[in-house]
Design brief:
Helix content: 25-40%
Shape: globular
Largest sheet: 7 strands, mixed
Distance between the termini: 55 Å
Number of helices: 12
Strand content: 15-25%
Order of helices and strands: EHHEHEHEHEHEHEEHHHEHEEEH
Structural class: alpha/beta
Strand order of the largest sheet: 2-8-7-6-5-3-4
């Protein structure tokens, strides 16, 4: 006889990571090409000497540095093993079995998975035709069972960011008993009019039911170290922190994240370079006839529908690995100029075959 396990596990899809192919350009996982910032790499090397010791279970030094960096109280911040772990902790903290978690779709593919893991019910709301979140429809989908709404901005994998006025109008409609999580994993890449940009931390400090989730995996280049943070009201931060797996934020990750916060000029130069390439790649794809949504992240989205799998396979044949969402589209990370040129050459050849 086999041990008893949860009977619903077969219905929970596995998270599918971006593929790696030896010798190919990997533009599948929204990583940075250059790796950690030089000053951060030095901090990681220094921290490695103490890797025989357990890390601070509360990540206190990092939390205090984040609080100073964000100009909030330390009680309003908690750290976690990447923002995706904090997303799962949040679901576990606010949802009982049968409660609903709402999100746009497509959006971050972990949302339905972590909802089901916590015995919550995922509710997906179709995006608008331009790939942006339909906040009116999301607000209209709230029921008595709704406990949590994920708002991914910029949205992964489609790219558009939510305008500030639209977000605030949406938040005004959401009952205070419902938690709204602003997933800002790509916030460092957002450009444009400051009056139009969402600042999740400012929204958090103005409302009792909003949290902001951010990560060091993307712009800061620490995807392999797994460290992120959540900012929110104390009434939400405390229960989320209780859900953490002990010692899940390593000492190397904590030291690296603190060093990241000291590297403002380095980070801005890096993200500016990505934004320049983002515009170049998107313009080239538009010239080819692709309907690429406006993007404020470090990737572009090609809504190829049934042609997505063929396009993805074509790119792999040309030693470029993209992220395929079969039947919907293909997400392509912005790499360095040479990597992007290899992708664009493959994309042009695909168009010429059609």
């Amino acid at each position: 006889m086999s041990p008893d396990v949860r009977s619903d596990l077969d219905a929970i899809p596995a998270y599918v990571p971006g593929a790696s192919v030896p010798g190919a350009v990997k533009l599948a996982s929204n990583e940075t090409t250059a790796g950690p910032l030089p000053s951060v790499a030095a901090a990681i090397a220094d921290a490695a000497a103490a890797a025989n010791r357990y890390p601070d279970i509360t990540s206190r030094a990092l939390v205090e540095r984040l609080a100073d960096f964000l100009d909030v109280g330390a009680e309003n911040v908690t750290a976690g093993c990447g923002s995706v772990a904090l997303c799962q902790q949040l679901v576990q903290a606010v949802c009982a079995p049968g409660d609903e978690v709402i999100f746009g779709w497509r959006s971050f593919e972990a949302y339905p998975i972590i909802s089901r893991i916590a015995h919550a019910v995922p509710v997906s709301i179709p995006n608008r035709a331009d790939g942006s979140l339909d906040l009116d429809a999301i607000a209209g989908a709230v029921t008595d069972r709704t406990r949590l709404i994920f708002v991914c901005t910029p949205n992964n994998p489609t790219g558009p960011a939510v305008p500030r006025a639209e977000l605030r109008a949406f938040l005004d409609r959401v009952p205070e008993r419902v938690t709204v999580a602003l997933d800002e994993a790509y916030v460092e890449y957002v450009r444009g009019d400051d009056d139009d940009k969402v600042d999740g931390v400012a929204e958090v400090m103005a409302r009792r039911n909003v949290v902001s989730l951010r990560t060091f995996s993307k712009a800061y280049g620490l995807a392999g170290l797994r460290v992120g943070y959540l900012v929110g009201p104390v009434d939400l931060v405390v229960p989320v922190a209780k859900m953490v797996v002990p010692f899940s934020v390593s000492s190397l990750a904590q030291s690296a994240a603190i060093a990241c916060l000291e590297a403002g000029d380095e980070l801005r130069a890096r993200t500016d370079a990505v934004v320049v390439e983002r515009s170049r790649v998107r313009d080239a794809l538009l010239d080819m006839g692709h309907a690429v949504p406006d993007t404020q992240a470090n990737f572009v989205w090609l809504p190829l529908a049934e042609a997505a799998s063929d396009f993805d396979a074509h790119c792999r044949d040309h030693r470029v690995v993209t992220r395929c969402f079969a039947g919907d589209g293909v997400r392509v990370t912005i790499g360095d100029r040479d990597e992007n040129d290899r992708f664009l050459a493959a994309a042009r050849e695909f168009v010429s075959r059609m």
